[in-house]
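The passage that follows is intended for readers who have already worked through the single-chain material. We present the inputs for a multi-component assembly, then the predicted structure in tokenized form, and finally a short commentary. You are encouraged to pause after the input and sketch how you expect the pieces to fit together before reading on.
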Amino acid sequence: MHQIENFINGEFTAARGGKRFEKRSPLDGQVIASVAEAGRAEIDAAVKAARAALQGEWGRLSIDQRTELLYEVANEITRRFDDFVEAEMADTGQPHHVMTHAFIPRGAANFKVFADVVKNVASESFQMATPDGRGALNYAIRSPKGVIGVICPWNAPFLLMTWKVGPALACGNTVIVKPSEETPLTATLLGEVMNKVGVPKGVYNVIHGFGAGSAGEYLSLHQGVNAITFTGETRTGTAIMKAAAEGMRDVSFELGGKNAGIVFADCDFDAAVDGIFRSSFLNSGQVCLGTERVYVERPIFEKFVQALKLKAEAVHYGRPEDHGVTYGPLISLEHQRKVLSYYQQAVDEGATVVTGGGVPKLPGDLKGGAWVQPTIWTGLADDATVVREEIFGPCCHIRPFDTEDEVVNLANDTQYGLSTTIWTQNLSRAHRVAARVEVGITWVNSWFLRDLRTPFGGSKQSGIGREGGVHSLEFYTETRNVCIKL
Ligand code: NAD
Ligand code: 6OD
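Having made your guess, compare it with the prediction:
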């Protein structure tokens, strides 16, 4: 069993008073780690260390020295690739190939790409006329914001945490990471990497615990934290925003979604089925960008539903490391209960269950895990609960549509605005519809294809701000103008 400690000022430390909590495997419900729960004393210590690091060696590094260190972090993650894969599989139960092809390599990329961004993005400059004819010159400089609180979810823990920590450190800040209580392992392992490559003490800190009345709340309320970047539920974002209002601290939020997939009859049919299968069921549907509402143009509706059903019924359940496993459990029994309650509600509201709708029959100790079947519904009204609320599970409702205007209105009929995936071979239509859907990210004939230089974030209740490329610099630095009278 893992003993997971907080990582403060370069050291792994237990919580004062020895408070700990258990981390259970989503595969079978067995306890796999004992985790130190940080209290106010640990948050104080982490903030103190992070503030001291800003004034110390870290704060004095040149951009080249800092970015070289971040390259080393990325290289060491790659050297310890298998350790990260194993830790993330233990925490989430998701299949090996999801870790090796997507989630862990992205962790390394998040350090390299943002090291490159800070080296290559110029700042603005304006010459201006003045009445004396001599003029003035304005130029902008960027300074780190200070100590950044990074509050993370459990669904792609390493990818999502490093997506914030990479740019924050590249910009010269120090960080205090609060991983989800469900996924403490990879953030802790990253502490070993930081020490190994010589990142100064106090630059990267990790405190474990829960949200309200625990480490998450204490961190977001702490006045020594200059800004908070958060990924998680919209409701939690509201609580963190209230905390950040105290002291007028900046926030960057990546929140929930109820994303639409739009499939036109002129799509490449097989590619569209594969694409919607991934967007609805990858990571057992626990991807914020995932598709829980699918709209299919009427002429191909029945054929599409049947094709997606076949794929959903062909998943291979099992332990992540077992050969041929393509599908994992939900993160926890608590989340399983939530998703199953939506499965019941869909039936209560009159859904046709095309496939799934329950718990798969699995052998041996997997019976104790947080498994649910990939589930497809049709026949629900547009105001049905499972069509409106984010479920964050492996499920989608598929509804036919007849016109472009109709489907745009349906897609936009939600409080959320994170992402859309559109499937069509008509290029004009792709551009037209992409411009009309009210989301932060639209994919055409693809899904979750990421270029880290592009703006990423949500509209409406799916987020505040954009990160990615130069947009990350906007959040992680303070831009200052210098005006020189000539
Ligand atoms: P969550 O909001 O329950 O928890 C996220 C983090 O916030 C955890 O570390 C938790 O301990 C902490 N937290 C909870 N209450 C808090 C409080 N009052 N103060 C401070 N911290 C608190 O989210 P989750 O269940 O871990 O993740 C799933 C959610 O995340 C889904 O809604 C999903 O859509 C969203 N998500 C969004 C994106 C995006 O990019 N938009 C990406 C991934 C996940
Ligand atoms: O790819 C990313 O940078 C990102 N933030 C992905 C979010 C996935 C949500 O589950």
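Commentary: The longest strand covers residues 136-144. The domain at 259-451 is CATH 3.40.309.10 (Aldehyde Dehydrogenase; Chain A, domain 2). How closely did your sketch match?
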